[in-house]
Amino acid sequence: MILTPLLRKFVLTAHVTFAVGWLGAVAGFLVLAIAGLTSQDAQMVRSAYLAMELIARFVIVPLSFAPLLTGPVLSLGTPWGLFRHYWILIKLLITILCTIIMQVHMPPIIHLANKAASTEAFSADLHSLQIQMVVAASAALLALLAATTLGVYKPRGMTSYGWRKQYEERKVSPDVDTTT
Amino acid sequence: MSQTNVKPDRGSPPGTPRWVKVLGIIAIILLVLFVILHLTGNGFGGHTLSMEYWLEQL
To answer: Quick check: A180 pLDDT over 50?
Structure first.
């Protein structure tokens, strides 16, 4: 199935918006995680974890699933394909990995937010979770930056499957250039 | 995303590009580092907690 130019532009716009929005939301999340870990102001710490839960629940989680839908639609709807080029395959793997990591970290985020909402003081055993938030958000930010870079630069490199498919297509219709 | 410039010839399939190999090595190093940190008890401990919280949610 090949997308029409108008539909392709629409899906591409949605994909870029979701992916870059996700990156921005994770950057904001990281700033709050650092503030929650390092701030001496108790009110600031509580506010940070409450805001982190909201951002994670209503921005990051939905935005992490959206590119998983628009990305494959875009690649399968164009001659690029989903498994033909290394950069698309690696971008897909990064997106899947980041989405899983986000889901794994949701319960600790909720736990920290619940503690922040209660009146009791942050105990020392929460320190490891606070550090985990900073590390996970930093790793996610780096991974998403790598995915964005791959999407912009589109480095050369065709998989064996992609090479075989393109060769077969050119063999079937030698006059038609399937790459355009 | 409308054009691909790679046009394979009729020879053997292309080898894995160098940038993919470098990324793969970096990924393996990070994975090994992660496993070593957890096995030596220097991990953050949050993943075990994560599982507990998941089970609590259920």
So the answer is: no
Residue A179 forms part of a structural domain: no
Q: Is A147 domain-assigned?
A: yes
Judged by CB atoms closer than 8 Å, whether chains meet at B13 and A160 is answered as yes
Residue A178 lies in a domain: no
Closest to A73 (Cα-Cα) out of A18, A126, A25, A120: A18
CATH code, domain with A17 = 1.20.120
Minimal Cα distance from A5: which residue of B?
B2
Assess whether pLDDT exceeds 50 at residue A2: yes
- Give CA–CA dist B37/B46, Å, rounded: 13
pLDDT of residue A27: 97
> Could you tell me which of A49, A21, A160, A36 has the C-alpha nearest to residue B17?
A160
pLDDT digits (tens, 9 = 90+) for B23-58: 999 999 988 988 887 777 666 555 555 555 555 655
> pTM of this prediction?
0.81
Residue in B19, B49, B52 nearest the CB of A157: B19
Domain total for chain A?
1
β-strand partners of A158: A85
Range of the domain at A120: 5-172
